[in-house]
UniProtKB/TrEMBL annotation:
It is an enzyme of class 3 (hydrolase). It comes from Pseudomonas donghuensis. GO terms for molecular function: 5-oxoprolinase (ATP-hydrolyzing) activity; ATP binding. The gene is pxpB. SMART domains: AHS1. This is 5-oxoprolinase subunit PxpB.
Amino acid sequence: MNYRIEVVAIDCLMVRLFDRIDESNMPWMLAASQRLRSAFAECLVDLVPSYTTLMVQFDLLQMSPAEAQACIREALSDLQADAGSGGREHEIPVWYDLSVGPELKLLAERCQTSLADIIRRHSEREYQVFALGFVPGFAFMGLVEEALAAPRLATPRKRVAAGSVGIAERQTAAYPAVSPGGWNLIGRTPSKLFDRQREGYSLLQPGDRVRFVAVERATFLNLGGDDTPLEAQA
């Protein structure tokens, strides 16, 4: 496959495998990640996958920048997508309600449909985890259907509740902790998305597949969810 190696820093290279975001990229991204981790071995400091790129940070005391580039080229020389390299499957319960997902109404008005239809369309689709970022455990997932795509809020909220599920453009995500944020909120999950006691910390990892499951308020509360309205938490 065609890829480009870009210099990020003296000890950091960016491998650009694709130029556009697509769900079909993931088998290639996972295969490349595995190859690079194995090739760099103890010389690898960090490897960060994203939608179309892999950032490779290496130990300058063990490997020169030229050697790092050569290592990448050799590792990816005969790369093949691994159809069996997909991650884990998750079902994440979500309580879709205006009190915790105020942009549900906005999406319904934009699509000229009902709240129930927006909930159905968001929860009937399987999403792929493309990358982790923003805050620990925040998984960028996609792709939502084009009709549900919505730009980030012009003015981000100063405080978004943990578990809030939202949409930004054709991405969807759930906030693992209280933080500022500008995504369009449509519900809340009781799932613990980031846990320092969990191996890998984050519930979701790049390559995982996620399906949101709509649940009633009672089920949400029984699973440990916090139903405090968003406005009351501001």
